Automatic annotation (TrEMBL):
Lineage, broadest ranks: Bacteria, Bacillati, Bacillota, Bacilli, Bacillales
GO molecular function annotation: phosphoric diester hydrolase activity
InterPro entries found in the cross-reference section: GP_PDE_dom (IPR030395), PLC-like_Pdiesterase_TIM-brl (IPR017946)
SUPFAM superfamilies: PLC-like phosphodiesterases
PROSITE patterns from the UniProt entry: GP_PDE
Transmembrane residue ranges: none
Protein name (record): Glycerophosphodiester phosphodiesterase
Organism: Gracilibacillus dipsosauri
One Pfam family it belongs to: GDPD
Ranges where the GP-PDE domain occurs: 2-244
């Protein structure tokens, strides 16, 4: 069965990468959650997509230059007041730490995809810090670490050979199975057009190892489910769950 992952929670309808958004996806009975992490100046791991606060919060500045104390004072929900479901309570949503998300999913049968945003900024010690936090929580969830930046995944694997790593791709590669075996990848996370563009592209030969992002249209969801991909990562998890039932 193709699994459904909530992209930054329920990004299409709720403020992305917030506990509110993750809880909505959990309520929709997804099999997985996808989130993004950066590291603060004081070495804390926070869940936010961009390198800066500016787009998704009412604060500003690079995460790497800010301490958690300040980041926790800004609203991670007020910028989404144009959403149909907006409620004034969203203004109280904060940028969560990774530990807060791990607490949210404690005891739940869920997969958690932690994306390391290290393509632009390489955070010294991020990989070790991540593993320390996850191991400390000893979560029942299956944890998958992904990144566009392959060296981050290699460092994770070198630190702990048992971790699940997945390489994010928005460009074709030759012989994907060779990459999977050589780098001991648990999966490839592939941009949707790479696998939908042709019935004869190489990703179809490893569909059971492929999670596809970001899939928001029903017809594309149906095609990918028919192809037997491992998972669909979507901004609209409720829609995807309903499509899979049909």
């Amino acid at each position: 069965m193709t699994k459904i992952y909530g992209h930054r929670g329920s990004k299409g309808e709720y403020p992305e990468n917030t506990l509110l958004s993750f809880q909505k996806a959990l309520n929709d009975e997804v099999e997985g959650l996808e989130l993004d992490v950066h590291m603060t100046r004081d070495g804390e791991i926070v869940v936010i997509h961009d390198e800066t606060l500016d787009r998704t919060t009412d604060g500003s500045g690079y995460i790497k230059d800010l301490e958690l104390g300040y980041i926790k004072t800004v609203s991670a929900g007020s910028k989404f007041d144009h959403f149909e479901n907006y409620h004034s309570s969203w203004d109280n949503e904060k940028v969560p730490t990774l530990e807060e998300v791990l607490q949210l999913i404690t005891g739940k049968n869920i997969e958690l995809n932690i994306e390391l945003k290290t393509s632009i900024i390489t955070y010294s010690g991020l990989e070790e810090k991540l593993l320390s936090i996850v191991n400390r929580w000893n979560s029942d969830a299956k944890i998958v670490y992904s990144s566009f930046h392959l060296p981050s995944l290699v460092r994770l694997k070198n630190t702990d050979p048992s971790v699940n790593i997945a390489w994010l791709l928005h460009a074709p590669i030759s012989n994907p199975k060779d990459y999977i075996e050589t780098f001991e990848l648990e999966a490839l996370h592939v941009e949707k057009d790479l696998i939908l563009s042709s019935l004869y592209n190489p990703f179809h030969t490893v569909s059971e190892y492929v999670r596809v992002w970001t899939v928001n249209e029903e017809d594309e969801m149906k095609k990918l489910i028919d192809l037997g991909v491992n998972s669909i990562i979507t901004d609209y998890p409720q829609k995807a769950v309903n499509v899979r039932i049909k």
